[in-house]
Amino acid sequence: MPEKIKITINDREYEVRPNQTIMQAADSVGFRLPRLCYHPKLSIEGACRVCIVEVEGMRNFVASCAYPIYDGMKIKTNTDELRRARRDIVELILDNHPMDCHTCERDGNCELQRLAYAMGIKTRHFEGEKKNYPIDVSSTSVVRNPNKCILCGRCVRICSEVQSVHNLGFSHRGFKTVVMPAYNEAFADTVCSNCGQCINVCPTAAFVEKNYTQDVFQALSRKDVVKIAQVAPSVRAAIGEDFGLPAGKNLEKETAAALRKLGFDYVFDTQFSADLTIVEEANELLHRIKTGGKLPMITSCSAAWMKYMEQFFPDLIDNISTCKSPMSMMGAMIKTYFADKIKADPKNIVSVAVMCCTAKKYEAARPELMVNGMRGVDHMITTREASWMIKSAGIDLVNIKGEEFDEPLGMSSGAGTIFGATGGVMEAAIRTAYELYTGKEMPDLDVKAVRGLKGIKEGAVMMGDKEIRVAVAHGLGNAAELLQEVRKNPDKYHFIEVMGCPGGCVGGGGQPYVGLNCVPLDENLLRKRAEALYNADRNRKIRKSHENPDIKRIYKEFLGEPLGKKSHELLHTHYKQHYPQGIIPGGGKC
Amino acid sequence: MHNRSLEVFGKAGYFNSQLRIALRNCGIIDPGDLDDYLNVRGFEALAKVLSGIKSEAVIAEIKRSGLRGRGGAGFGTGLKWELVAREKSDQKYVICNADEGDPGAFMDRSIIEGDPFSVLEGMAIAGYAVGSDKGIVYIRAEYPLAIKRLEKAIEAARKQNLLGKDILSSGFSFDIEIRLGAGAFVCGEETALMQSIEGHRGMPRPRPPYPSASGLFCKPTLINNVETWANVPVIVVEGAEWFSSVGTEKSKGTKVFALAGKINNTGLVEVPMGTTLRHVIYDIGGGIPGSKKLKAVQTGGPSGGCIPADLIDTPIDYESLGKIGSIMGSGGMIVIDEDSCMVSIAKFFLEFTQSESCGKCTPCREGTKRMLEILTRITEGQGKEGDIEKLERLGNMIKKSSLCGLGQSAPNPVLSTIRYFRNEYEDHIKNKKCTAGACEKMLSYVINDKCIGCGACKRACPVNAISGSTKQKHLINQDLCTKCGECYKTCKFSAIDKG
User: Fold this and answer.
1) E-assigned strands of A286-336?
2) Residue B202: which residues within 8 A CB-CB, separation 6 or more?
3) pLDDT for the residue numbered B441
C-alpha cells in the first residue's frame, strides 16, 4: 500500500492517506462537509445523507462519511445539484420538526439549526404532516422528546456502542420511525443508566435533562429555609464554556460567588466530601486487604455506574465499595453535622447539588441514601441548568469577583479536585492508602498510569512490600469489558475505579453542550477540562485527602474514626440487584 | 431440461411462446418428492460439478452464460460468484433471497412451492464454487406452503446425501437452513436482509463493504435471488453456450413475469429476454378484456416505472427497460387500460414504498412522505400549480441521495408517469379533472333532464345536498356533496351523471 494516494476534489488534486473515507480525506485537506448523523466515536450510520458528494463514475450521490477513497478518485463536493439536494434534505428534516427554536433548550446550540442556516434554507416547499408523540418525562434524569428527534441514531449508537446499555433502538417504519426503549417503556422503568450521554450527542433537543431549575428558584425565594449549595469539581472546569470562555478555564471561585448571588446562604464544595470519600474508601480498601475481604474493591462514586452495575453486574455487588458518593456524603453532612453547627432543623434546610451529571438526579432520589428519613440532596441541577439560572438571574459569571467556599465543608485537597477526571478517584485513593498502609510519605503524588483517556488503564503501585494492582475504566462499555475480565479473573486487581461517562465526570451528561468547531465527546475538550483540575491539584498546598484539616476536624468533632459507627450510618450504603420493567428476576442472564 | 411444460400441457396459446427454464419443473413434478426431481435430471448438475470440475471452471461457466441477477438490478451472477470466491475467509455464506415483497409478484414463491430442489441445487453448486459450506434461505413468513416444501426438500436432500457432510462422497460439505422474514419489504435489500438474519432490525447499511467482502456476520457472502438460483442447474447441465443463445446481447436467458392487471390471461409468464411487451401482452396474455385500449404497462413493481402504450414494442431486457424509465425488477408486470388514472397508479405504488421505508435515511423517510402528500392532494382535486415540479425535484433528489435501492427507486412510478402522462397530472391540477374517472374525490354528480322529480336521491343523500320539489328536476349542491355516490346508486332513471 503506498503511503499517499491522489484524489481530486472539485478539480484540484490532493495527496492523502489511503484507507479513509471521503469525509476524512476531505477534512484532512481543509474541507468540512456538512454532516449530521456522523460522529467520529460512533459507527457509521450513513443515514442523514447530508454529507453526500458526487463521485465521477457513480450514478448516485454517495455518503462521504461511509464511502472509502481510492487512488484517482474524482470527487465533487459543491455542485449546484448537490447544494440543492443537501438543502432539500435538511429542509425535509425541518419539515418534520417543531418550529419552536427560540424557546427550545438547544436554541443557539443546535446542530440542526446551524445546518439549516448553513444550507441557506429561506423558504419552505414541502411542508405537511408532522410527527406528534407524547414526551416521556417519567425518568428523574432524562426527558425524551421524540418530536424533536431527527432520527440520526447517535443516541442509539452511543447507548449501545459506547455505554453498552442498549436501551434505545428504532421502532416502527418509514415516516413513523421513532427512537424508543424496548416496548416504548417509560424511561424510568428501563435499563437507562441515566448517564445522559444521549443528551450530549443529540444534535437537537430530543433528549434533555429533567429540569429542576424552577424548583430551585422556588426554594431560593423562601425565607424560612436555609439554602445550601454544593458544587462538583467538574462543574468549575466546564461552566465557563456556557459563557463563551475557552474550555479548560477553572471558575471555582466565580462559581461560588455566582451561586451566592443566586441566593444560596452557604456554598460548599463537593471536593471536601470527595476528600471524605477518599478517607473512608482508602480505609475500606486497606481493611479488605488486611482482613481478606472481597477484592477487587470497585468504586461507587458514579451514579450511572451504580445503576448499571445493579442491573448488569449484580454478582459484583459485594465488590462495590459501600461508600456513598461525594455528593451524597455532603448531603448527609449538611443535614446532620452542619445542621447541628448552625443549630438549624435539618427539615428546614434545602440542599442543592450542582453537578456535571444527570444520573445524580436519580441518585439524589434513591431511598437507600436517605438521612434520618430526609433526602441528603433535595435538588440536583446540572452544569447547564446552573448556567441557565445564573444567566436568567442576570449574574455576570465572567466578570464576577471570585469568592471562597464556606466553612466548614468547603476546604479541599488536590486529591478531591481530580475526582472529576477519569482515574482521579484512583489517584486520590492511592495517595491516602499508600500513606495509611506504609506510614511513609508517597514519593511522587502523580500517578500517571491512571491518567489520560485510554478506555481501560491498568497500573501497579508498590506500597512498601505490597503490590497493589489497579485498573480504571471510564464509559460504561469500557467498564463492562473490564468487569467481564474481573468475572473471569477475580484475583487480577485489588482496586478498580469506574466512571460511567467517557472521560469521567468532566464528560458528564450534564456538562455544557459543545460549541462550534467541536463535537460531543471530543477528546481535546475532555483533556482541557481535566487539565483544569490537574492544574488546580498541582497548585494546592495540600494534595492528600487525609491531610485536609477540615477532614481531620470533622472526624474529631463528629464522625469519630473512618469506618466507625457514625461513618457507617451516614457515609456508607448498600446496593441490591435492580430489575428493569419486563425482566423477570431469575429469568435469565443479562 | 427446459420447456417440459409444453410437452405436458400441450400447445396451449398461453404456453407456446414461453420458454421455461426457471419454471421448468413447476406444475410438472411433485415438489415433495425428491425422486420426481431426480427423474427430470435433478441434481445432475451438482453431481457433475462434484465429479471433478474445478470451482474456477464452474464460475467461468456461469460467467460465460451471461446470467444476471433476477432480483432486479441485474448484476452479473458469475462476477458476483468470482468476487466471493476470491475472498479468503474461514467462513463464507451463500444466501437465497426469497423475501419476495413486490405487490402482486409471486415468481419466487411459485418456484419454491413447485420446484424447491432446483433452488437447493443451485445454492449447493455455488457453495462448491465459492468455497462455502453454509447456505441460508431467507424467506418471508407469509409463504407458509413454500416454507413447508422447502423444509421437506432440505430434509429429503440431506437423507440422500445431496446436502450435508461429504456430499456424494466428494469431500464437499454444504448444508442449508431457513430463516424467516417478518414481513418487512426492505428486508429484500441485501444488507437489510443480512441484518435481519443476524437478529437486528432490518435496515440497510451503506455499501461498501459489499456482501462479497463483508456480508453476513462480516463474512464474505454470496446472495442471489430464488429465480437466479433456479437457473443455475440448467446452465451447468445444458452449458453456457446454450443458455447464452437465448436472449439479447447483454441480457441472457429468460425472465419470469407475474402478468396481472387488465389482461385476459393472468399468471406467471417466462419468456426469453428481448421478447417485446406487445408479444407478452397480446400473444401470451391474450390482450385486454372488454376490448379496452391499452394505456400503459407497469414493470418492476413499486420500484419500477410505467411504460406508455406507444412503447410496447420495446424488447424486455435490463437495458431497454432502463432506457425508458422503468426497470426489469423482480418481474412484476401490470397491464393498465384506459380506465385507470396514472396519478392514482403512481400514488398506489408510492403509498407502498413510503410505508415500507425502513425510516433510516432522510430522503426516503421524509421525502417519499411529502411526495405522497402532494400526490394525494392532486388526486383529491387540491393540486396546486408547481406540484409537478416539486414531485420531480423531490423524486430526482431521493433517487440520487437515498441509502438503498428502495429509496433510490421509490420515485420511479411517479417520475415515469410524469414523463409519459404529464397531461393527466396537469388535468388533475388545472382542470380538477380525472379523465379516467378513477379519482373519487374529483368526481362530480350532476342531475340531468331525465330526472322526473321522484325524490329518491334527495332521501338517499346523507348530507342533504340535493334539493328540488316533487316532479321537478332536482339539483345537487356541489359545495355540500361529499361524492359518496348514494344518489347515483339510488336513481332508477339514469338521471345522474358521474364525471
Assistant:
1) 297-298
2) B181, B182, B184, B186, B187, B192, B193, B195, B196, B358
3) 85
pLDDT at B329: 86
For residue A117, being part of any structural domain is answered with no
Nearest CB partner across the interface for B369, out of A48, A63, A175: A175
Percent of chain A residues topping a pLDDT of 70: 98
% of chain A surpassing 90 pLDDT: 94
For residue A91, being part of any structural domain is answered with no
CB contact at 8 A, A262 and A393? yes
Which tens digits make up the pLDDT trace of B422-435?
Answer: 999 999 999 998 98
ipTM of the complex: 0.91
H or E segment to which residue A226 belongs = strand A226-231
In a domain, A588, yes or no: no
The reply to whether A322 and A378 lie within a common domain is: yes
Distance (Å, whole) CA A52 – CA A85 = 9
Distance CA A547, CA B340 (A): 89
Report chain B residues whose CB lies below 8 A from the CB of A60. Answer: 399-402, 408
Of B101-105, B187-191, B315-319, B344-348, the one with minimum mean pLDDT is B101-105
Structural domains of chain B, with CATH: 22-245 (3.40.50.11540), 254-337 (3.10.20.600), 354-430 (1.20.1440.230), 443-498 (3.30.70.20)
Catalytic (active-site) positions of A = 281, 284, 301, 321, 360, 363, 368, 505
Cell numbers linked to A264: 444560596
A-chain residues near B362 (CB < 8 A): 47-50, 89, 92-93, 151
In one letter, which amino acid is A257? Answer: A
Q: Which of A188, A209, A230 is the last residue of a domain?
A: A209
pLDDT digits (tens, 9 = 90+) for B3-27: 776 677 766 677 778 899 999 999 9
Chain A residues inside the 8 Å CB shell of B361 = 46-49
Cβ <8 Å between A92 and B402: no
Please indicate, yes or no, whether residues A492 and A548 belong to a single structural domain of this protein: yes
Of A85, A96, A172, the CB nearest to B397: A85
Contact between chains at B397 and A84 (C-beta distance less than 8 A)? yes
Contacts of A49 in chain B (CB under 8 A): 361-363, 401-403
A11 and A26, same structural domain?
A: yes
pLDDT digits (tens, 9 = 90+) for B144-158: 999 999 999 999 999
Question: Which residue range(s) make up the domain with A151?
Answer: 142-209
Q: Does B370 touch chain A (CB under 8 A)?
A: yes
Domain of residue A174, CATH code: 3.30.70.20
- Residue A356 near residue A234 (C-beta atoms within 8 A): yes
Does any CB of chain A come closer than 8 Å to the CB of residue B384?
no
Give kind and range of the element (H or E) at residue B261.
Answer: strand B254-261
Residue A410 located in a structural domain: yes
Residue B403 contacts A, CB cutoff 8 Å: yes
